[in-house]
Design a protein that fits this description.
Layout: E1 5-9, H1 15-33, H2 47-56, E2 58-64, E3 67-77, H3 87-93, E4 99-107, H4 116-130, E5 135-141, H5 145-153, E6 157-162, E7 169-175
Parallel strand pairs: 4-5
Antiparallel strand pairs: 1-2, 2-3, 3-4, 5-7, 6-7
Helix pairs in contact: 1-2
Length: 176
């Protein structure tokens, strides 16, 4: 690492570097969550899928030279109820008009606990506010104590947990 980090909106040409970062970071996520690597869809995501996310959502990336060292994506939806697991979640989400859904949040191991994740999350929240969202949503394995603590410290609350993907996966929400 040369220490000259550049944060910017991702471009199509960045897809391969972002894909590599996500796979590396998700290996740690799987270990910390006690999830088999084969159960996490991010591990088999194609570069074309990353390109699609860059085209159709707001993908922020941090680069050290040509290497992606951090990323986060937010997608805007007018119907946050589509993330419902149950009537309980549907009732909770029905109070909101517009949501941002946060996904593919990753920081390389060597830069964790250095503020990069905080910066990415803050940029995502700012984007959400600028787009009139009143809630941010994300999913995280509830067995991943580090990530759930990170999200809770940022004001997210666990709305509900379910096991449809073979592991305990929680929907977290933050009013904005």
């Amino acid at each position: 690492m040369n220490g000259d980090l550049v944060t910017r909106t991702a471009q199509i040409r960045d897809a391969a570097a972002i894909s590599q970062l996500l796979r590396t970071a998700m290996l740690t996520y799987c270990t910390e969550s006690k999830i088999p690597v084969t159960m996490l869809e991010a591990m088999t995501e194609s570069i074309e899928s990353v390109e699609d996310r860059i085209r159709n959502r707001h993908c922020i990336a941090v680069f050290d030279g040509d290497d992606a060292v951090g990323t986060i994506t937010a997608g805007i939806t007018m119907v946050p109820v589509r993330y419902s697991f149950s009537e309980k979640t549907e009732k909770y989400l029905s109070q909101f008009k517009k949501a941002s859904y946060v996904s593919r949040f990753a920081v390389i191991q060597g830069l964790r606990r250095e503020g990069l994740g905080l910066s990415l999350m803050a940029a995502c929240e700012e984007y959400s506010k600028e787009n009139g969202c009143d809630v941010m949503l994300l999913h995280c394995s509830t067995t991943n104590k580090k990530m759930t603590a990170f999200y809770k410290a940022r004001g997210f609350e666990l709305i509900e947990s379910e096991n449809s993907r073979g592991y305990p996966r929680g929907l977290f929400a933050k009013r904005i």
